[in-house]
Amino acid sequence: MPRLGLKNGFWERSFFERGVQVPRENKEYERSHKNIVNVSTEANHTRKAGHTREEIPTHMNNLDNKLTIDELLHRGLRYRDSKEFVKFFDFIARFKHYSRYNTMLVYIQNPAVTFFGGVSYWRNEFGRNVKEDARPYIILAPMCPVMLVYDVFDTVGYHSPEEFIKKGLGRDPHAVKGEISLKTYEYAIEEAKNWGIKVSYKPLNYFRGGYVTTIKAGHLEICLKAEASLEENFAVLIHELAHLLLGHTGHKQIQYENKGKPKILMQRYLARTTAELEAETVSYLVCHKLNLQTQAAEYLAGYMDGEEDLLSFSYETVVKVTDRIESLFIKQEFVED
Q: 199 and 277, same structural domain?
């Protein structure tokens, strides 16, 4: 679950991944979340006046979106101080006994590796045994040239590897509650392809949900997790589409089946923290409208250290991109209000 810092903007990387991360960084835009206090008052007055959601003018629906965003971001901040958050990262911290260089060596051998350790480490620390046909990974050792380590998914114990991780973390970091139809999912995938976005499925690290390539990769691709559920992949798809349309990836335009005028994309240089806050918020708003409950607050908690991280967050851009994704990739007959 690498969290790579960016000194000169995102496009130094070849992809943007949606996975469990640990925060830091900031830049750009002046809009403060403190404006939301006035937004709340205005929206409440409108409801008290007897307006239904359909009767509320467009600008008021945008105010409601801002209220929802503000609530989500503050839930993320509250979750960061919760026992569940502490348990989550305490568990992860137990696996940081190897150097970053060794972690990199394992990642090069297999990017899908989750937690790894030697035979004695798995046995003594967690009561788990390495399978006979387990694939070994080579790392450097202090007192000898190399040693072999093994991924948790190549071990056996009282719990399955998946149950072991979920029990340790206290939750399934990718779980999505609710259901969407296969038609809704397939329509979004097909429309993404029609806009020239390659959509692929690959086995990914347990903590990685997917990624979108940046302009540095030389092509535009969204990769989803091969073994994830329909709903989990849908939430990640929207998250990665949001990165693209929010101007985080450096791509200049997309074109529908190479016909008509291309859509010009925004070009925005943001810190990774801000970009993840924006993309996950868009995914949350789209999924919320389809009655899907994602773990957006928990995800955002990994990026926010405090309210100062919200200073460069653009409410207006997030709402506009949410509307655009719904109009381009979600067939309106599938949307349930």
A: yes
